[in-house]
Each structure stands twice: as C-alpha cells, then as structure tokens.
Amino acid sequence: MGKKKKQGGDPSSTIALNRKARHDFFIEDRLEAGLALEGWEVKSMRAGRAQLSESYVLLRNGEAFLFGAHITPLPTASTHIHPDPSRTRKLLLHRSEINRLVGAVERKGYTLVPMALYWKRGRAKLEIGLAKGKKEFDKRAAKKDKDWERERARILKHG
What is the reported pTM? Predict the structure, then answer.
C-alpha cells in the first residue's frame, strides 16, 4: 500500500506572512511567483527564518525582483560562502504575467506587494498582491468596520 497524499495546503507550508500588507493596501489581484534562491536560503527557509515585513517588489528591465526580504542564514552555513541576508532575489514569472504587471504598475499606479512566502510541491513560492495604497482615513474606516463585525458577532453569540 502506498502512502496517502495530503489534500489542500496545510498550514505548515507557510514560511512567512506580510500582515501589514492588508492594513496598508487594497489588494486587487494576486499572483504566484517562484524565487531564484541559493542553497543556504532554502535551508534557512525550511527552518522558518524568513521575514517579509519590510520587503517590496520592483520591475526592472522586464524582470521582477524582490527587495528587502530578510532570510537569516543558519549558523551551520558553509564556511566558503558569505551569505547576504537581504540580497535582491529574482522572481520567476511568465512573460505575459510580467507584461500585465508592468502595465498595471506604470499606467494605472498600482504597487506590487509581497503577501506570503510558502512551499508548494517542494518549491518556495511568493504570493504577490497587485495593490493600491490606503489613505489614513481608509485605515480608520477598515478598523471601525472590523470592530463592528467583532461586536456584532459577540452580540449574536450571547443574544
């Protein structure tokens, strides 16, 4: 008898989340991109040492790059390499996806925001959000709505 494969994405496949992205931006569309990584980065990500909080995505010369993502090297990293924790990493996207993103960013004023870093079939993937920035009053309105939903759920639960 063979082993049964798990269905769906299990929560342990998530490496890092960018929680501030939903607070600071209206997310209009999402894309999945691969990452060009080095060996020590993959090992560190398997150990859960990745951070997306200050990272952003830029399009240059028809290619997408991830800036500011911090992957802390493991202390057991090889001695003959000098790991750079916040190096620029290339994102792997299809040409049609890059062309669509270039159009949205340059003509319509959108921003590319890294949302989540996760494993999919043994490969590291980055979820990118095509987003518009929120103003301060938008953030206050979103917080007010969230508080009201929480209060409404509390009232309905306790009657």
Answer: 0.72
